[in-house]
Amino acid sequence: MQEHGQNWKDVKSSLIQAKSKDLPYEKVLSSMCTYPHPIAIEAHKMFIESNMGDYGLFIGTYELEQKVLAMLGDLLHNSHPYGYLTTGGTESNIQAVRAMLNACKSIRNPNIIVPASAHFSFDKIADILKINVLKARVLSDLVVDTEHVISLIDQNTVGLVGIAGSTEFGQVDPISDLSKIAIDNSIFLHVDAAFGGFVLPFVSQHVPFDFSLPGVTSIAIDPHKMGMSTIPSGALLFREEKMMDFLRVDTPYLTISSQFTLTGTRSGASVAGTYAVMKHLGKEGYCQIVDRCMSLTHLLLNEVRNIGVNPVIDPVMNIIALSVSQPKKIRKELATQFGWQVSITKQPPSIRLVIMPHMTEANILAFSRDLKHVLEQVQFSENNESEKDRIFDGTGNMS
Ligand code: PLP
What we know:
Strands 1-7-6-5-4-2-3 form a seven-stranded mixed beta sheet, sandwiched between helices. It has a four-stranded antiparallel beta sheet with strand order 10-11-13-12. The chain has a two-stranded antiparallel ribbon with strand order 8-9. The N and C termini lie far apart (66 Å). By secondary structure, the chain is an alpha/beta fold. The protein has eleven helices and 13 strands. Helices cover 42% and strands 14% of the residues. The chain has a domain at 38-280: Aspartate Aminotransferase, domain 2 (3-Layer(aba) Sandwich). Bound molecules: pyridoxal-5'-phosphate (PLP). Pyridoxal-5'-phosphate is lined by residues 32, 88-90, 93, 119, 121, 163, 165, 167, 192, 194-195, 222, 234.
């Protein structure tokens, strides 16, 4: 750190320089975040100093948080949820599993069962909470194999996890079956709807995934993904109040006597941003956003099918994974030649595209055109390679 302070003009110019290196979202098809709604930004700025880590000092923000929980509960079919606003899906998942573990302290070597398609936050959970995270295989349509889940349950299993909107493929596990399995075995069921929570309630096809299923004990849902709020905004909701008690620690020097959150200091600005955007959009507003993303998803699907590319699964939400050979190479060429940011999946290998609200029809068409170009190039170089292999045998001699 330098000795003397800099004037705002100079500081601002280094900020502008740094910001110019960040990628604008318009060409980003790899992220589950997007531009926050302008109203969320306004509200965020209004509450920038608010610390929910000591909410006795910020009663107004605390009341907003309770209102957000009530709105989320309504969305997820629970008229009285218990929970709090987290920093995102990772924290919500950690805390859901931490509560399960604390509720089952007598189990010495506990495990949870998650689908093989679960987000990598569950690998962090295994590491942090020192719990065995058993991975149940997925079927060909990438939903968890419930028979395998059942076979993995033993006397040390504290809970199951189902994914409502998997990170890589946007697939939804059979949460109603998992709910029955959880009840039959008297274990918890956490639903990771970090992405799908703000999508599934607004798609035309009804997909059961929430507290309407009696075995679901907790849900992670992220306002900073499809909820259009500011970062960091996640939420963890429990069906039962006692689960919050399993997270509680005493906080002697604060205005509140205990805390159930993972972080201490916590953004009240995100709480205000989430409240404002949910109030402003209402279910109707989110419906329009999801409708638009789904139309663009189907437009993209149509375009890629026209150039002979198929999705790994028919998209359930606004995520498409494209079955292509050499996905890594295609990803690199799309970025270097055209500036598109896409991601790749591991199993099965594919190009993963998330069609977020920042996407436009013009950009989807431009992307499809550029993808076609790159696929032709890759195909051409593949053909050249195999032609070389045909002409020369393994010793370098002509065959
Ligand atoms: N769960 C799912 C299904 C996700 O897709 C993600 C992130 O992509 C997470 C959890 C983690 O969320 P965050 O990055 O907000 O911690």
